[in-house]
Each structure stands twice: as structure tokens, then as C-alpha cells.
Design brief:
By secondary structure, the protein is mostly helical. It has two domains: about 30 residues, no CATH class; about 70 residues, AhpD-like, CATH 1.20.1290.10. The chain has six helices and no strands. Helix 3 packs antiparallel against helix 4, helix 3 packs parallel to helix 5 and helix 4 packs across helix 6. The longest helix has 15 residues. The two termini are about 25 Å apart. The relative contact order is 0.11.
């Protein structure tokens, strides 16, 4: 099965896709120091702060799969408004709303 990273960038940036699969997801995301749920919460927070809507969309989906609730994701967005800026939070709400409707 082809990974999402391979689908998105494998033809153009095969090494980046390989590192995404092998280092980020098979190593970093599997380390025992944080649960996948907590890693999702941290990642969502970072993507809100960095205003990275494309990656946020996929990580909101992953966060739901990893046990975050919709309410927890919305609360994270609300909390981050005061640390990363109102526009980032407002944009993040639109992304979460779209993912929740899927």
C-alpha cells in the first residue's frame, strides 16, 4: 500500500516522502515518551501556531483517530488564539469544521 506521503510527494520528492514515512511516522510518532493522542495535541497546536492549514487538516483527522474529541480540538484552537494569534485560530476553526463534517 502506498503511504499518504508517497501519494503527496513521492514522485517529486521521494527522499522527503521516505523520511516522512520512516523517520517521522515509524520512529518519532512511535516513541514511548508521549501517547499518539498527546502527540496529536502537540502537533495540532504547533500547526495552529505556524498557520499551516494544509497540514492542520490532516492532523485534525489523525487527532480524531488518535482519541482526541472534537471538543478537545476546538478547545485547543480557542486556547491557541491567545498564543498564536486570532487569525490563525479563526482559520483553524474553519479547517476543523470541514474535517468534522466529513
Amino acid at each position: 500500500m502506498t503511504s499518504r506521503a508517497q501519494q503527496l510527494m513521492g514522485d517529486t520528492a521521494p527522499k522527503l516522502a521516505e523520511l516522512t514515512d520512516d523517520v517521522l511516522y515509524k520512529d518519532i510518532w512511535e516513541r514511548p515518551g508521549l501517547s499518539k493522542r498527546d502527540r496529536s495535541l502537540v502537533t495540532i497546536s504547533a500547526l495552529i501556531a505556524l498557520n499551516r492549514p494544509d497540514q492542520l487538516k490532516s492532523h485534525v483527522r489523525l487527532g480524531l483517530q488518535n482519541g482526541l474529541t472534537k471538543d478537545e480540538i476546538v478547545e485547543t484552537i480557542t486556547h491557541m488564539a491567545f498564543y498564536s494569534g486570532w487569525p490563525s485560530a479563526v482559520s483553524s476553526v474553519a479547517i476543523a469544521k470541514e474535517v468534522f463534517a466529513e
